[in-house]
Amino acid sequence: MAEEPRERAESSATAPSPDSSGEDHQLRRRRRGLLRMYYGVENEQGKEQDNPVDIDKAGFQPPVFMEKILRECSLNELYKKEERMKREIQELDSNMQYLVYENHSKFIKASETIREMKDDFQRLEDDMTHLGSRMEVPSLSFSLSFSLFSFPLLLSLSSLSY
């Protein structure tokens, strides 16, 4: 009898509360699944990962899928599935085109930015070279002035030593 409350507590921890809606339960399941996927934890439904009829899984097998839906679905259900799949394909195709366009425009912008930076650095290098050559003239002038200024002083000092 002592084990019954524990079992009840465990089941209430995993089951949704009567007050929560089905959406809350689905949201929690989705979050749990995303966390499992992120941390690489194998879920208890590992068999679903290799489900050959789940079109969104890596183990999808078209012949098995076709056989299953032809066996289980009515003609109206097949038409509805076809329409839904067409919409999904168009949506995925549209998303793919958008991503390609967006990445292409980012690539073009990056190329232009690199070209502009290269031009800016070339101008900066030219300016630095020009500035360096202009600095050499005053430096040479200063050293000549110092030499000319100190020459009479050196002469007067040298005459004292004789």
TrEMBL record:
Record note on quaternary structure: Component of the Golgi-associated retrograde protein (GARP) complex.
Role of this protein: Acts as component of the GARP complex that is involved in retrograde transport from early and late endosomes to the trans-Golgi network (TGN).
Q: Mind listing the GO biological process terms from this record?
A: endocytic recycling; Golgi organization; Golgi vesicle transport; lipid transport; lysosomal transport; protein transport; retrograde transport, endosome to Golgi
Location(s) in or outside the cell: Golgi apparatus, trans-Golgi network
> Can you quote a single GO CC term?
EARP complex
Q: Which organism is it from?
A: Geodia barretti
Q: Coiled-coil intervals in this record?
A: 75-134
Cross-referenced PANTHER family:
VACUOLAR PROTEIN SORTING-ASSOCIATED PROTEIN 51 HOMOLOG
Q: Hey, which family's this protein in?
A: Belongs to the VPS51 family.
Stretches for region Disordered: 1-29
Fetch the InterPro entries from UniProt.
Vps51
Keyword annotations for this protein, in alphabetical order, are:
Coiled coil, Golgi apparatus, Lipid transport, Protein transport, Transport
What is the protein's name according to its record? Vacuolar protein sorting-associated protein 51 homolog
State the Pfam families in the record.
VPS51_Exo84_N
Q: Where is the composition biased (Basic and acidic residues)?
A: 1-10
